[in-house]
């Protein structure tokens, strides 16, 4: 299983991808079409090879686009966890 944490922001989204051994990959994408395409490539690759659990903070309304985008990519709703930043 892989774990993807998303720090949602107005202009950028930051990610940390962890595997079960604790190895991590950190990246940041702009909150625009090009950034979402980069995220799409990462998620599709990881979904093909692994089970993926995604946690993201529900920051204002900024999380809505990325949440819906991940659902459309085929991430099961049960594998998307919204976290309250408070």
Strand fraction equals 25-35%
Which range best describes the helical content: under 10%, 10-25%, 25-40%, 40-55%, 55-70% or over 70%? 25-40%
Domain module tally: 1
| Helix run count | 2
Please provide the count of β strands. Answer: 5
Please write the string of helix (H) and strand (E) elements.
EEEHEHE
Distance between the termini: 27 Å
Q: How is the main sheet built?
A: 5 strands, mixed
CA-atom Rg in angstroms:
12 Å
Given the helix and strand composition, which structural class is it?
alpha/beta
Low-pLDDT residue spans: none
Which overall shape is indicated by the principal axes computed on the Cα atoms?
Answer: globular
- Give me the side-by-side strand order of the main sheet: 3-2-1-4-5
Averaged pLDDT, please? 90
Structure description:
- The protein has helices spanning 33-49, 63-73; strands at 2-7, 12-18, 24-30, 52-57, 80-83.
- The termini are far apart.
- The radius of gyration is 12 Å and the shape is globular.
- Helices cover 33% and strands 35% of the residues.
- The protein is α/β, with parallel strands linked by helices and 86 residues long.
- The mean pLDDT is 90.
Keywords summarizing the entry:
2 helices, 33% helix, 5 strands, alpha/beta
